[in-house]
Amino acid sequence: MPASTHPVLLTAPHYAPGGGCALHRYLDTDFVPRFRQALDAGTLADPAAADWQQTDRFSRHDDALVLRLPLHRTFYLIACEAVCERPGRPALDPARIVSAGFVIRRVGGGAERLWRIDDGSPAGWQPLAQDSPGGAAAPDRDPDLKRRLHQRRLKLERLRNPGSRARPRPAPAPAAYTGEETHPLQPLAVTGPDGRPRTVLFGFLPLGGQYHPPGKALDNAAGNALIAADRGTLPDPLNRTGSLARHWHTSQARLVQAGRPNAIFVAVLRLLVQRYHLGEAPARDDDNLDLAAWAAAQRFSAGFSLLDYLSAHAAVQSSGQPNALVRWLAERDRAGDTADTPLPARPRDGGALDASLTITADDAEELREALGGRVLAIAERLGSEVPVPKFQQGPDDLFQVLPFLRTRDDDGCERVTWGNAVRSTRFRVAAPFDPDASRPTLVQMPSLDDLRRGMAKGAAMLIPPDTQNLINALKLNKGASEDVIGEPGGPGLGIQWICSFSLPVITLVAMILLMIMIALLNILFFWLPWVRICLPFPKRT
After folding, report:
1. Structure pTM?
2. pLDDT 10s digits, 87-98
3. Is residue 307 one of the residues assigned to a domain?
């Protein structure tokens, strides 16, 4: 067999024998130069014996190693070695390496999963089939689907022309990637402490990422649970299940009597006006078609519909004037639901509303169904827009690194070698706000003497004239009272204000407000021992 076509093998690095891929942790951004310098100098030690591999096991599920995220200012490198499968296992010539990389497998829950990419878009964790790349049935299969097909074509040409060698061909033209997500490993030729040449492969371990799950954001069970939870916030009997006919009484049917609403109508108004903005801009009518159709069918005794009533108030708001219905709801929230104030009339009528509105049990069921469909539509849309973290913190979210290597033989074909024997140790990934994963961030607070030094410069804000008039009208003994705020004014004179604020003042104000809120909430939660820890610290010069 020609020397250039002998098999290759991925092993643990020479400075960490007997294990899998070496996992190095760094707490600064210069981790790549530091790793290379230590590797060249022969000062790298076995990371499995490092103290952090024993202390960073703070998972609530088991004693697996927990890796921090880059936002914790913590970074990780993966390293292994490429050798020739020959007596003595000499280092592989880096010239034979086409590329190298690794994949991250989810190995918790008794089943291995791979992170799939379909046409450039993440498809999430998919079950690992027997013939998946790197599996028992496909130990030499490339994770890149298009690259795999390209190599199959080269092998077919070699079989058709056994007497001639196929020339190396370039990789396929760039296209949307399909296959398992891969991360690069860089080859580095070094000399080990024993004087032998070594080919070390190392690369950055990315622990972030999000994706949008394909398909529906909610299944039927989750949708029904969501509707039931939202229905539980409605007043009786709209929060009941089943038919409303046996629960619907005459007092409940009179939603508005001589301009005064009952508790059911106030709750429905809060949803229609404050949450769904029914009757506002036409762009929102598509989302509110069912609710708008229901409101158009409910007519006051004065002859206009509920939809007309809401649209008239919304039209006033769109013209820049205060919405009397919104103000009425705010005042009722301050006074409590026991307030007995009549509804505001339509803007064109003026005064207070003197009409009545009555609905039937069937109307109430239609309203309840329309509200359930509306909240479900919002959840579906937000579920499709809100990304899901790639690495989560459930009991089955256990991960492992699997390296691979691409080499080229004399026929120009690529051979893929997977390092199943040198998989990394299993690990979990910390949550962004995990208190055990967080590292201290030092913020230098100013002294009181800094408040009177220099001009107010730092944070600058561009303030419109009406907002500036409001700020100038604030009084220390009144604050933002009603006589200060007043009604919104008309257009200004075309002059704006640029106000600069002292950074020391902003920092102290933020600190004081934070301590006030912590002290107030500590009355309810008793969390002060977990929120703040103050220790003496020597001043460094």
Report:
1. 0.76
2. 889 999 999 999
3. yes
